[in-house]
Each structure stands twice: as structure tokens, then as C-alpha cells.
Amino acid sequence: MSALRMAFNELRRITSGKLPKLAVLALALVPLLYASLYLYANKDPYANLNHVPAALVVKDKGAKDLNAGKEVADELLNGKKFNWHVVDNPADADDGVRKGTYIFALTLPEDFSEALTSAEQNKPRQGVLTLTTNDANNYLGSTIANQVVAEVRRAVTAKVSTEAADKLLLGFSTIRQETTKAADGATKLADGAGQLRTGVNELDKGQHQLLDGATQAASGATQLRDGLHQLRSQTAPLPDSTRQLANGARQVADGNETAARQAEEYAKKAQALVGVLDQANGDIAARLRTLGFTEDQVQRVLSTIGQVRKPVDDANGKVQGAAGDLRKLANGADQVADGAELLASKMPALVDGVGKLDDGATKLADGTAQLRDGEQKAVDGTTKLKDGANQLADGSAQLRDGLTGGVNKIPDADDPTRAAIAQAIGDPVAVKGLSQTKAATYGAGLAPFFLGLATWIGAFVLFLLLRPLSRRALAAGQSALRVALGGWLPGALLGIVQVLVMFSVVRFVVDIEPSNPWGTFGFLVLMSLTFVAILHALNAAFGAVGKFLGLILLILQLVSAGGTFPWQTIPVPLYPLHYGLPMGYAVDGLRHLMYGGDLGSVGHDALILLAWLVGALALSSVAAYKQRVWTPSKLKPELVL
User: Fold this and answer.
1) CB 96: neighbour CB atoms within 10 A?
2) What percent helix, strand, coil does the chain show, rounded to 5?
3) Do 39 and 22 share a structural domain?
4) 94 vs 56: CA distance, rounded Å
5) Are 54 and 104 in contact (CB under 8 A)?
6) C-alpha closest to that of 16 among 24, 27, 7, 26
7) I need a surface site. Which of 38, 60, 226, 450 has the fewest CB within 10 A?
8) Contact 105/55 with Cβ under 8 angstroms?
9) Backbone angles phi, psi at 626, to 5 degrees
10) What Pfam family does this protein match (any one) (predicted)?
11) How far apart are CA 200 and CA 2, in angstroms?
């Protein structure tokens, strides 16, 4: 008989009759009832906190411009996170908490606002919120109440700090305005000091140039004085000398005039001789032509005569030139004699003028020396002024830069920016959420754990009806592996049906959507096959005791799988249970598939479950092998479930 044949006979056995069919249907619905109803109830419990009753007592009288009690109360009532009941008397609120009418009570005392503003009077003290809880009502309610009060405290602290920061920034704005004015004045001072330094530098430059000019003038005046002294001493004999010169020049001019006149007489006689010769040439030419000489012969004769008279012509030219030169010399000598006469007549006045210049140069030398000494004093004073102007310019520039830099460091925020900065100062910590994977709701967060738990329970209830091993197959001597597979397959098929129904309702009715739907379904099928194999092996090997062991394993896995809190929070002695039992790997794999985590760990989890599956089938095969031998305890077991 094949394993499939044995499985078919077992399924036919448990579905023979109306009630057995209903029992099989109920078995298929057990995981659905456990998973869907539990997840539905826990899908988003935080959304229903507005049904939790709480008492709110506001006794705050306010202070100045702050009424923190009213503002806190309005924020709580408008938020509608709890079912707040405003109670006037603190005693009534305490009594309501004691009787369970309210889960907790929050009281804002009379001096709440006054305490928050006490720092302005240099008498700082804390504003005290009174929270009344009763663990007899609900322990989680007390925990939630503490969180609510902490949130209120943070909100009030942020508001008070924001207002204080706003006033501080407003003060900064005033300081900045005044500092800006000072910086403007310092800028003007720096500009004026810079201009003063420039002017003083120009003045210093001009003074040095003037000093140099005065020094040069004093030196030149001294040289002029010395030169005039020498000139005066040298020009003293000039009147007598020029008179002698004038007399000599006149004598020379007279002699030159006499020589010129004689030369001119000689020149006239020479020129007359040349005229006679020219007349003779004409007469000779005419005479020759008369005598019958040809023109050529006449010209040869005239040429010969010309050669003969050439010395005469040359001498005449020299005489004429010498007469002209002597005339020019006579005229020039006459002019020189006239000039010498004029010079001789003017020389006494020139000598007197040189004497006066000498006296003036002496006074000029003394004045320029005094001017030089005065300019030196002026340069010394200007140098000191320049140093002072430089120090003033540098100091005013540093003052300007310091004030300008200080202005830039003083906050200058407009109203929206100041409000934002005040908010940041008042509530300095902000949280930026970065979630690699995230469950959409509280129910989705618990889904991996409860789906694994439901799958285990579904496998458990299957063997309340199914027989782990076929007695006919055992009696017929079938192989142990075939008998084991024949006992496991019915539960495996029903487990797949359980998973299909459970996953469909959780996905489409409870509306929990996995990130990887097909992977999640396949992993659930692997979980079901593994859990069915484990419980089948326990029932096959230990009988009724195996069902008890299945419950024990369920309890151990509930405390070690890490389905709610991280498994690391369990006691250290329980760590081996987490590493050894399959539920932790099943929950881990489902989390990664449902939330979109790393699929690498899913493969590891799947291998662990496959190892458990193979190991469980091996144990079932060993149990089938041993049960081929009938014993009295087998014929009449002590415990029957």
C-alpha cells in the first residue's frame, strides 16, 4: 500500500458521516478564529484611547500674560486622546480614581502659571503637576498616564522656553539696532580718520618736499653769496680795465680805417687796369679781323693774350677781396670800439650792482637757513601728527570692524524667524524617523507572532482527530518511512488548507497587507508543514504524552520566540530555547517577508525549518519502525485523548 493510498484512506475515514465532516471543517477554522479575531482585537488599540475615562482638574489662577493651566487644559480637551472629564474638586477626582470611575486624574495647581514665570522675579521654582493613578484599575493605564504627563510637561516646558527665548531674541534685536548705530558711527569715524591720515600723509610728504626745497634753497643761497663775494672782488678793477680796453679799441679802429681806405684806393686802380686790358682785347680783335685773320685765328690770339693777362686778373681779384675784408675789419673794429666805450661807461654801475647783490645774497642765505630750521621743526611736528593719525585710523578701523563683526554675530531675526528660533531653543531636540521596515499598525506588528502561534495550534488540533500512524499499514509490515509519510501527509494537506484560509482572511478582511504576499504565504505553508511534522512525530513517538509535549513546546516557544518584545530581553538562561526551537525562526522569517526586510535571513530561517521538518519525519519513521511490534501498553494505553 502506497503512502498516498494510506493518506486517502485516513481522510476518507475522518470524513465518513456528517459530524466527521463538520469536525474536519472546524479543524480548518481553528487557526482562522485564533489569528483573525486576536489580530482584529489588537489591530490598533492606541486609536481607542479616547474611550478611556480620565479626570482633569484645573485650579491654575494664571500670572501676568500667562495662563498655562487653561492652555494645557484646552490642548488636552481638543486633542481628544482620552475621554477627559473636567472636575472642579480635586477630592472628587481622587475619589473617582479610587472607585474606578476614572483611570487616572491630572491636577494643575493654583500657582502653576505663577511658578512658570517665577524666574522673572529671580525666585525660580517648578510648576508641579499632580498625577493620581491606581494600578487596581489597570497597570497599563498607569503607564499610559505617565507618558501623557511627560508629554504635557514637555509641551509646557517648550512653550515657556519658547516665550523666554522670544524675549531674549527681542532683546538681541534691540542690542543689534543700537550696536548697528554705534557701528555706523564707528564707520564714519574710521572714514574720517582715514581721510585725516591721508591728508596728514600728504602734508608730511609736502613738508618733506618743502624741507628739501628749503635745504636746497639755503645751500643755493650760500653758494650764491659766496659766488657774489668772489664776483665782487673780481669785478672791482673792471672800470679801469674796460676804460683802457675802450681806448685801445678806438686806436685799433682808427688804424683799420686808414688801412681800409688805402686798400680801397689800390682796388680802384687795379680795377681800372683790368678795364684798360679789356678794352685792349677788343681793339686787338677788331684789328686782327681787319687785317684779314680768320675767326679761329682771332680766338687763338685772344686766348694767348688771356693767358698772358691772367696774373693781372688774379691779382685784381685778390686786391678787391682784401679791400673788402679791410673794410669789414674797419667797420667791426669801429663797432668794437663803440661797445668798449659803452662797456667802460656802464662798468661802474655794474660793479655797484654786484656789490648790492652780494649784500642781498648774504641776507638771502641767512633767511633760507632760518626757513630750513623752521621747516625741520614743522616736519618733526607733522611726523608726530602722522603717527597719531595712523593710530587713530587703525584704532577707529578696529572699532568699526569689531562693531560690524559684533553686529553680524548678534541675531537679527524677523518675527517668523524669531519664532522659529525661539521654538528651536525652547524644544531643542527633534526626532527624525528613518525606518528600514515598519509595521503599519499595532496588529500588523504582532501579526508574525500570532500567525506562527496560530499555525502551531492549528497543527496541534489536527492530531486530536487524525491518527499519527496507520495501524493497517503497521500490521501489513509496510516500510517505516512509508508509514510515517502516510501519517504526516493528511495533516500536511489540512495544514495547507488552514494556512490558505487564515492568510486570506487576515489579508483581505483584517486588512493586514504583507510587503511580500506570495513569499509570506509560501513561508506560512513551510511553517505549517514543519509544525505538523513536529506534532505528528510527538504523537507517533509518545502517543497521548506527545500531545502534552506539544503544549509544553508551545509554552516554551511563547516565552522565547520574541514575538512581542525583543528576544534579547528574556532571561539569559532562556537563550538556548530561542536558538533551538523553531518558532523564533518562523517569526523572524515572517517579519522580514511582511515588513520588507532582508530576504537573506529568510533563507536561513527556511533552512532551519526544513531541518526540523526532516528531523521530525525521521523521528516519525523511527516511531513507525518501533510500533510494528505490539506490546500490552499499546493494546491498552494508560492515557487516551
Assistant:
1) 21
2) 80, 5, 20
3) yes
4) 11
5) yes
6) 24
7) 226
8) yes
9) -70, -30
10) ABC2_membrane_3
11) 121
Q: Which residue has the higher pLDDT, 316 or 321?
A: 321
498 and 619, same domain (yes or no): yes
Residue 172: phi and psi, rounded to 5, are: -60, -40
Please tell me the total number of residues recorded for the chain in this structure.
641
Q: How confident is the model at residue 175 (pLDDT cuts 50, 70, 90)?
A: low
Q: Concatenate the DSSP letters of all residues of 599-611 into one string.
A: SHHHHHHHHHHHH
144: domain CATH number is 3.40.1710
Whole-angstrom distance, CA of residue 115 vs CA of residue 124: 7
Q: What 3-state DSSP class applies to 334? A: helix
Give kind and range of the element (H or E) at residue 83: strand 83-86
Strands of the 53-58 sheet, one edge to the other: 83-86, 53-58, 104-108, 130-133
Amino acid at 51: H
44 phi and psi, to 5 degrees?
-155, 75
- Identify which has the larger pLDDT, 412 or 594: 594
59 lies in the same domain as 35: no
129 and 106: one domain? yes
Q: How far apart are the C-alpha atoms of 432 and 250, rounded to whole Å?
A: 126
> What are the two backbone dihedrals, phi and then psi, of residue 106, each rounded to the nearest 5 degrees?
-120, 125
DSSP string computed for 452-475: HHHHHHHHHHHTTTS-SS-HHHHH
Q: Are the CB atoms for 106 and 129 separated by under 8 Å?
A: yes
Residues 126, 81 within the same domain: yes
DSSP state of 51: G
Residue 88 CB partners (closer than 8 Å, separation 6+): 57
pTM check: above 0.90: no
CA angle 447, 537, 590 (to 5 degrees): 20
